[in-house]
Design brief:
With about 400 residues, this protein is an alpha+beta fold. The protein has 12 helices and 19 strands. It has a domain of about 210 residues: 3-Layer(bba) Sandwich (FAD/NAD(P)-binding domain), CATH 3.50.50.60. Strands 1, 2, 8, 9, 10, 11, 17 and 18 form an 8-stranded mixed sheet that branches. The longest helix is centred in the last third of the chain and has 28 residues.
Length: about 400
């Protein structure tokens, strides 16, 4: 097989890049080691920046997003028993759209099927070869046979645990990491959300987040110990803990019900530099991970894809390599700002082992200043709605 671009990973990054390339007449093959159903079974965050919506518009994959996505003008910070709204629209002139990542992935998958572009699922033992040369290739195994894809470029969109970053020699890559000493226990329940916008809560018992997938389906999180187990959390225990961490008015308004998804995820910050190695380009979680506190993971994958697509388009349009040469620097400049924002939100909102009574007071003072300072609220809002691509 041969393609201009071989894309490893059929998550949002791989599928969005594939769609943009297909629309531009640049043939590409998407490979994934698992099947579509497994990918669509993953529960992920769901806040889209305007820039991400625009790129999904450009890909032609945003009809359902506009029909079903919830536009939010703001969100709330809850602390010291009170709620404080951050008015994103008033502070930045921008909004965010709440629309599950699973739905973004589903829309992109469906559009790829319609486009007829080639996708290979359940590809075993995917490996990347000769990306330091001008003729890289990818191999994989399926039905007992080893297959080969010759290509001009390889896009490593295979997430944090993928093969692409692992294939780069250690001497050629630098990594930066911060692991957080807690996790998020998340539940999905077919109950109306407690409020029409998101609530991020700082509480001495730990962080909580009230989100949603629609006005009938809620997504809630509570901070939990890293070694905690889902089995230790009945629905009743979860609802009780969530309400303890919210201001009284919100706690009383929570509609409880049976959860149909419950999982614990660790939090980490991670960046790999550079994001380009000859003819291999890393994009999305393959290159960086952010704690979900800032809702940046999917949006960073989108901005990486924006830069990489522009570079590939220019190469195939007029042979220019400027965009490809600039890719890593351009992407990392935006990545690090989002990593900083996600880290700062995580530090401000969570209970750390050494927070203690003094640390709690400091966090509450920081939040109290922030919500009463237009300058500080604007800085927070600018980062939350997303910095320019
Ligand atoms: N071979 C083939 N495919 C692989 C391999 C491999 N060795 N390793 C991983 N993959 C696939 C996974 O099965 C997954 O479908 O790569 C895909 C990576 O998708 P994501 O993890 O969703 O990463 P990305 O597309 O960058 O999207 C980033 O996903 O994890 C969230 O918070 C993150 O919202 C962000 C978004
Ligand atoms: C979610 O809805 O899953 C969600 C929303 C905002 C976040 C994190 C997760 O910051």
């Amino acid at each position: 097989m041969r393609a201009h671009v071989a894309i490893i990973g059929s998550g949002p990054a791989g599928l969005l890049l594939g769609q943009l390339l297909t629309n531009a007449g640049i043939d590409n093959i998407v490979l994934d080691r698992v099947g579509k159903d497994y990918i669509l079974g993953r529960v992920r965050a769901g806040v889209l920046e305007e820039g991400s919506v625009r790129l999904l518009d450009q890909a032609g994959s945003s009809a359902r997003l506009h029909a079903q996505g919830l536009q939010h003008d703001g969100f709330s910070l809850a602390f010291d028993g009170r709620n404080h709204r951050i008015n994103l629209w008033e502070l930045t002139g921008k909004k965010v759209t709440v629309y599950g990542q699973t739905e973004v992935t589903r829309d992109l998958m469906e559009q790829r099927e319609i486009s007829g572009a080639k996708s290979i699922y359940e590809a075993d033992n995917v490996n990347v070869h000769d990306f330091g040369s001008t003729s890289p290739h990818v191999t994989y195994e399926q039905a007992g046979r080893t297959e080969r894809i010759d290509c001009d470029f390889i896009a490593g969109c295979d997430g944090f645990h993928g093969v692409s970053r692992r294939s780069v020699p250690e001497r050629a890559i630098s990594t930066y990491e911060r692991a957080y000493p807690f996790g998020w226990l998340g539940v999905l329940a077919e109950v109306p959300p407690v409020a029409s916008e998101l609530i991020y809560a700082n509480h001495p018992r730990g962080f909580a987040l009230c989100s949603m997938r629609s006005m009938t389906r809620s997504r809630y999180y509570v901070q939990c110990p890293l070694d905690d187990k889902v089995e230790a959390w009945s629905d009743d225990r979860f609802w009780d803990e969530l309400r303890l961490r919210l201001p009284a008015e919100d706690a009383q308004a929570v509609t409880t019900g049976p959860s149909f998804e419950k999982s614990i995820a660790p939090l980490r910050s991670f960046v790999a530099e550079p994001m380009r190695f000859g003819r291999l380009f890393l994009a999305g979680d393959a290159a960086h991970i952010v704690p979900p506190t800032g809702a940046k993971g999917l949006n960073l994958a989108v901005s990486d894809v924006h830069y990489l697509f522009e570079g590939l388009r220019d190469y195939y349009t007029d042979g220019s390599v400027a965009g490809l040469d600039a890719y890593s620097g351009r992407a990392l400049q935006r990545v690090w700002k989002a990593v900083r924002f996600s880290w700062s939100m995580t530090m401000m909102m969570h209970r750390f082992p050494d927070t203690g009574a003094f640390g709690q007071k400091i966090q509450e003072a920081e939040l109290d200043y922030l919500v009463h300072s237009r300058a500080a609220s604007t800085a927070l809002a600018e980062n939350y709605v997303g910095l320019a691509f």
